[in-house]
Design goal:
By secondary structure, this protein is of the alpha+beta class. The protein contains 1 helix and 8 strands. Strand 4 and strand 5 form a beta hairpin. The chain is elongated and about 75 Å long.
Length: 135
């Protein structure tokens, strides 16, 4: 978990910056003060220009059971360069904590050689099974 401990006079957000663009990401998020809060996720492209803002209402409790809300963003291209997490709680404080962060880096496409290897393995397994059964 990352916690900003309400650094007075500083930006109250938690920011993750990426070396290369990703499709998006998100994290579990909770305000430090118990009660309702509004979470905001600002999404920046690789040139750090704001491209999207996501807001979500949550309720901060002491449950400690992983029930914090998840706020995230997923785009169609790998142009996300940074994610900024913020909250505004009932006390007017902006102390935020985020848990496990998830990144959307895109799906991988198997190489033809990998598919050929998988296919030949399946053919071999079928042939072995037929031979054992005497077919």
């Amino acid at each position: 978990m990352i916690w900003n401990q309400d650094q007075t006079g500083f930006d109250d957000s938690i920011v993750t910056i990426f070396n290369t663009g990703v499709f998006g990401g998100g994290a579990q998020i909770q305000a430090d003060a118990f009660g309702p809060f509004v979470a905001t996720l600002n999404v920046y492209d690789t040139s750090l220009t704001l491209i999207a803002t996501v807001t979500m209402n949550g309720n901060s409790t002491s449950a400690g059971d992983g029930s914090a809300i998840f706020i995230g963003y997923q785009g169609n291209t790998a142009d996300v360069g940074a994610l900024q997490f913020l909250v505004s709680d009932v006390n007017g404080a902006n102390t935020v904590a985020i848990g496990t962060e998830t990144l959307y880096t895109g799906g991988s496409v198997p190489e033809p050689s990998s598919m050929l290897l998988l296919g030949s393995g399946l053919i071999g397994a079928v042939a072995y099974g037929r031979r054992r059964l005497g077919l």
